[in-house]
Amino acid sequence: xxxxxxxxxxxxxxxxxxxxxxxxxxxxxxxxxxxxxxxxxxxxxxxxxxxxxxxxxxxxxxxxxxxxxxxxxxxxxxxxxxxxxx
Length: 86
Known about the structure:
The protein is α+β, with helices and mostly antiparallel strands. It has a domain at about 25-75. It is built from two helices and four strands; from the N terminus they run ββαββα. The relative contact order is 0.09. The mean pLDDT is about 85.
């Protein structure tokens, strides 16, 4: 059984900007909540809202690295074996 359609919305003026009020059902279906950060992707005939992923710094990623889990050292000292250098 498919989910019921979400009612259409209108673009409204909000100060010097525009806004669209999203039904709670649309937020729930997308796994979003009021206050969540989103990316706005504008296309020719559509606007996509996507949950913004937190940026993770390289040092944070390396701190989480477990050599036992990932089969070795994160830094490779081997010479290139393919087209890695160009």
